[in-house]
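User: I'm preparing a small set of examples for a lab meeting where we compare how different chains pack in three dimensions. I only have the primary sequence for this one, and I'd like the structure in token form so I can line it up with the others. Please keep the answer compact; I'll paste it straight into my notes.
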Amino acid sequence: MKRRYLLQAASAAIALPRLAFAQTYPTRPIRYIVPVAAGGGNDMIARVVTERWGKALGQTFVVDNQSGGGGVIACQTTARAAPDGYTLMQGYVATHGTTPATRRVTYDAIKDFTPIGMIGATPNVLAVNVNVPAKTVKEFVDYAKRDSEKLSYGSAGAGSLTHLTMELFKQETGAPIVHVPYRGIAPAINDLLGGQTQAMFPGLAAALPHLRAGRMRALAVTGKERSPQLKDVPTMEELGFKGFDAMQWYGSVGPAGIPADIVRRLNETQVSVLKAPDLAEKLAGEAVEPWPMTPEEFGQYIRSEIARWTALAKARNIQLEE
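Assistant: Understood. Below is the structure token output for the 322-residue chain.
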């Protein structure tokens, strides 16, 4: 009896400092690593969200841009940080989806991280050059099969979401379209507009100005619901492509082992920020819809993304060098 009492007392003594830490957290600024260079949509999303998130927590976030290696450098830094809630990272579809699915990386996208919460997502859009004589997905597939030697598609690079989404489309439809990888989305879009390529699956934010200007044509979008920016464009799901819900998503993670109470506090404050109407207006500039999730839901989403793209990469024989 005495031994049990002593063990319970010892456990309580250990738990008290952790509980007190969680209740007072955060007491200093939080480092928020963004795995891309400053400027651009990913960085903008991080700065808009953390500005409001910091106010909800009563502390500031310090954005630390660590580009390089397709997000690998930022992931390594985050995974090696102390799991105290003072180093977080903006994980996204590349770092926790397509990259670990298509190449060997020096981190485990699941085991080395603590999911905090999803921030939001934007669909990809099946876009074609205006000279392509197809107004629907069915017409495009028929055209591709009839004139396959004429068709190629651009991507932001081998292993990118724009590459894998089109490969998923090819797998589902049998459309024989040749892949032309570029170093980034901008040159890929330029060649689509110029007619050097005929189709691609860019993120909606990158495609929207050209769609509105009538310089490219949207045939469908990914996701489970139509985009508010393209209300007349059907989803792939509507057209019968079940499970075709690939999205460009963004969320927050930390190193593995962050105490549950701190994760809960981070998630609850993040969700409160994401539900504010003014944030939705800010993120609309990147065509991103807020998509709050619990840590458990976000962790499951990451696992499903890696499984999805790994299966596709194996089926399409896509295995890249580090």
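A couple of notes for your slides: Residues 1-7, 15-21 have pLDDT under 50 and may be disordered. Residues 83 and 258 are 5 Å apart (CA to CA).

User: Perfect, thanks.
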